[in-house]
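Ticket reopened. Same input as before:
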Amino acid sequence: MDGKTEAGRIAFLLSQVGAHVASQYVERIGALGLKPTEARVLREIAAADGLSQQALGERLAVYPSRLVGLIDALEKLGLVERRDRPGDRRSYALCLTDAGWKRLEGIEHSVNEQANELCRDLDPSQRVILNELLDRIARGAGLSPGIHPEFRKSVDGS
Amino acid sequence: MDGKTEAGRIAFLLSQVGAHVASQYVERIGALGLKPTEARVLREIAAADGLSQQALGERLAVYPSRLVGLIDALEKLGLVERRDRPGDRRSYALCLTDAGWKRLEGIEHSVNEQANELCRDLDPSQRVILNELLDRIARGAGLSPGIHPEFRKSVDGS
DNA sequence: TATTGTTATACTCTATAACTATA
DNA sequence: TATAGTTATAGAGTATAACAATA
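Engineering reply: fixed in the latest deploy. New output:
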């Protein structure tokens, strides 16, 4: 749908550009040898190094059983370690390895690059304005700053 | 990632708001008794009433085998018909029923409503500016006006 | 022989329940 | 008995190949 009203055009563009940003992100993550979910786990461990799989599951709103294979894969890639915990032999402390921290840096670098490419046609003052308007929409929609509502379902074109 | 640079913040907001628009869309479509894929098929048939499943598959970039169940479901809902084609007994002509056209109207109405809610905090001049800036980004990213790059894969938070 | 729609198969991603080993 | 992690199972959603009817 083209969206005849101004609001309609804006909603379409937001969805169109948002989808494009997301798919570019998937490509970039893939180029770094990871799936988006793995990148997300990496980031979450970095934010709370040493946490348990249970705790990680809660943070990601994901079933613990799902983390098993996920952590297995990241461990096989040498990016994450399951360290024994002194007091409790049931749970592990999840930590990034040096390679894990490096990979995470790579992700951040690539994401920055993507952002710069995306905005390359906007001059500084336009960027400020766009930021402001998007922020207003995000706040109006009840979105919390810095918290991303994961794409959990795939969506066909609007 | 918070995105320290202005470009980073914009990219994050675009992805965040885009995801939100998409998930609201899924909800609205669901409230109308459809899955996003089904809504997409409905829209595509409306745009080229009477086309074959092969042709539809090409337009949607989807394997013909996948359409079988999809059309089955829409036929069971009474929204689409497989009409016999006079000249060729191999292929069907896909048409929307009256109920199908009505449902499509409902979708468009709901999408308009969503767009208005999304922009409710922006006055007319702000809408014009936002539209312009988004359009500039979309064009710079090589996105064609009115063509939505389907979300084919689910993406975890950036 | 080529084309249309269909069935069958497999692979990924995810939700859920049952199990084990510690505590 | 409760908790952490694991295994097993099932259900979507989708890609691919083989097949039957028609051209």
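Residues 17 and 102 of chain B are 29 Å apart (CA to CA). The mean pLDDT of chain B is 92. Please confirm and we'll close it.
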